[in-house]
């Protein structure tokens, strides 16, 4: 599979996706979306791939948003008819059961911040900047920026960012709970790949179940979430990898996962 706007590399059981339009600060146009959807589908279908990392090429940006030049002349009827931006959630988030990490290396603005928030967690470099500046263009977030941001950082900061369009640096984003780790710029990719490799070394079914469980917390009541958690936990106790993981602990040896 060859792409023009993204790079896809397999590193052992980890797939690295790189947004590759550095001349446009990796702005997300329709071609990027189509290519990412195809690349994510291949990642999801490949049983040898267990975790993904997405980043932006160049040092300046993860992605500076949806492509403003592409949107500028597009009629409203087309945005509506195409249900523009819906596939980002349906294909990258809903259809991808395997975890993926956003390694944010610079600007993550508008759709760039929204794409990073679609990932299961964000590792940021100290130079990262997050924001939802759409209001300055006469629009508003359209790929989850109001919803996922509010869930991640709470109402006060989500309102502040959406209404002022200001940028938040990596330290503020970490304090607010948007990112899980902040590292020096030169260490970003090593840290993100190390995290992905650590995940990929876990039992495959437990990887899927752990991701699913945490996501359920954002979709349902506490009672329903706790029930779903118990059921998934109980399902995992029937796997061979549960037997192997516990036997390995008792026998003081490393486990060998079977993925069943
Ligand atoms: N789209 C297209 N091109 C872009 C974008 C973008 N989002 N961002 C940057 N570029 C291009 C610039 O046009 C420029 O290209 P050129 O050299 O051909 O002029 C090149 O990238 C470099 O950018 P700058 O020269 O502007 O670089 P600076 O370092 O001066 O500034 C900034 C960096 C601050 C990041 C600046 O580029 C900027 O403000 N970019 C736009 C950020 C933004 O507003 N993002 C939100 C876009 S809207 C969105 O993402 C959500 C859409 C939801 C719509 C829902 C509708 C239904």
TrEMBL record:
<dbReference type="GO" id="GO:0006635">
    <property type="term" value="P:fatty acid beta-oxidation"/>
</dbReference>
<dbReference type="GO" id="GO:0016853">
    <property type="term" value="F:isomerase activity"/>
</dbReference>
<comment type="similarity">
    <text>Belongs to the enoyl-CoA hydratase/isomerase family.</text>
</comment>
<keyword id="KW-0456">Lyase</keyword>
<dbReference type="Pfam" id="PF00378">
    <property type="entry name" value="ECH_1"/>
</dbReference>
<dbReference type="InterPro" id="IPR001753">
    <property type="entry name" value="Enoyl-CoA_hydra/iso"/>
</dbReference>
<dbReference type="InterPro" id="IPR029045">
    <property type="entry name" value="ClpP/crotonase-like_dom_sf"/>
</dbReference>
<keyword id="KW-0413">Isomerase</keyword>
<dbReference type="GO" id="GO:0016836">
    <property type="term" value="F:hydro-lyase activity"/>
</dbReference>
<protein>
    <submittedName>
        <fullName>Enoyl-CoA hydratase/isomerase family protein</fullName>
    </submittedName>
</protein>
<dbReference type="InterPro" id="IPR018376">
    <property type="entry name" value="Enoyl-CoA_hyd/isom_CS"/>
</dbReference>
<dbReference type="InterPro" id="IPR014748">
    <property type="entry name" value="Enoyl-CoA_hydra_C"/>
</dbReference>
